[in-house]
Write a structure and sequence with these properties.
Elements lengths: L4 E4 L9 E5 L16 H5 L6 H4 L9 E5 L31 H4 L8 E3 L2 E2 L7 H30 L2 E9 L17 E4 L8 H13 L4 E3 L7 H6 L6 E9 L4 E2 L4 E2 L3 H22 L3
Parallel strand pairs: 2-3, 2-6, 6-9, 7-8
Antiparallel strand pairs: 1-3, 4-5, 7-9, 10-11
Helix pairs in contact: 5-7
């Protein structure tokens, strides 16, 4: 069985308590997936190349955790009980669907794309439990362990949840049909991260010429909500990057601007690393 995640550690640089995670950059579909949709549909939910784009953080003292499995199989950025009961072949008291399941994109997706069902059958509890136990939970256990370990050693930890977004929202998105800005930063309206931390990211992207919006329409998902605790000096922010900046959205290939964009995100990572280093006196 392919490992649920990969963890990249600091390269030739002193460790700082800064963790980037990319929960949707995996594309592997385990053998028991059995979804009746073409690969193009699976790729639509893929944060292609995001793990590579943010890899430079490891050269600046930070960590990068990324999922190897597809979010279409199970989504690490959802609560473990955000399960749509309509997907199952029997009732289950573990199901506590949220607004995400209502749109067909909960822990286990009901739709691959608007109106395109992921499955032509019902799933069993055993199937869902297997996905949680072997993919979802290992990812979260690693992230929680890493954040806790860094927090213990540095009395603070800073977490960046990394995503990409379609240049225009589709029918399953809350901004359907609307062209998106270059960058959206989500901190739950200031609840998951110190505004100064968020502003470092915003200013770094702005310095490179990108349009940055905060919390509109995306305020951050489960990962940011679950791991951010400002009062305890645990900070978590979500970065959504417009895919058109670095890739051909139809072909799922890097475009001619890819290397320049990666240099720009390396600058953002450098600014963040400098900020975190200053916070912990390095």
């Amino acid at each position: 069985m392919k490992s649920a995640f990969s963890l990249l550690t600091p390269i030739e640089s002193e460790e700082i308590p800064l963790v980037f995670d990319s929960p949707h950059s995996g594309i592997h579909c385990p053998d028991d997936f059995n979804a009746q949709v073409p690969l193009e549909f699976i790729k639509s939910g893929w944060d292609a190349f995001i793990d590579d784009i943010w890899q430079p953080i490891t050269e600046k003292g930070g960590y990068l955790l990324h999922a190897n499995f597809s979010r279409m199989y199970i989504d690490p950025n959802r609560a473990p009980d955000d399960i749509d009961p309509a997907l199952l072949d029997e009732s289950w008291d573990r199901c506590k669907p949220t607004k995400y399941s209502d749109r067909g994109m909960g822990l286990i997706r009901r739709y691959a794309l608007p109106g395109k069902a992921m499955y032509d059958r019902k799933l069993t509890r055993e199937e869902v439990t297997h996905r949680i136990d072997h993919y979802y939970s290992p990812y979260h256990t690693q992230l929680q362990t890493l954040l806790d370990d860094l927090y213990t050693r540095h009395q603070g930890v800073w977490h960046v949840d990394c995503h990409s977004m379609k240049s225009v929202g589709n029918g399953m998105n809350i901004d359907a049909g609307i062209a998106r800005p270059d960058i959206i930063l989500g901190d739950k309206d200031g609840q998951s991260a110190d505004p100064e931390f968020v502003n470092v990211i915003a200013q770094a992207f702005t310095h490179k010429g990108y349009k940055v919006v905060k919390n509109t329409p995306y305020k951050g998902g489960y990962l940011v909500s679950n791991y951010g605790n400002v009062a305890a000096n645990r900070h978590s922010v979500q970065i959504e990057v417009n895919r058109a900046l670095y890739m051909n959205e139809k072909k799922f290939e890097k475009n001619e601007n890819y290397e320049q964009f990666k240099r720009d995100t390396s600058f953002v990572a450098q600014q963040l690393a400098a900020y975190v280093s200053a916070q912990v006196g390095k």
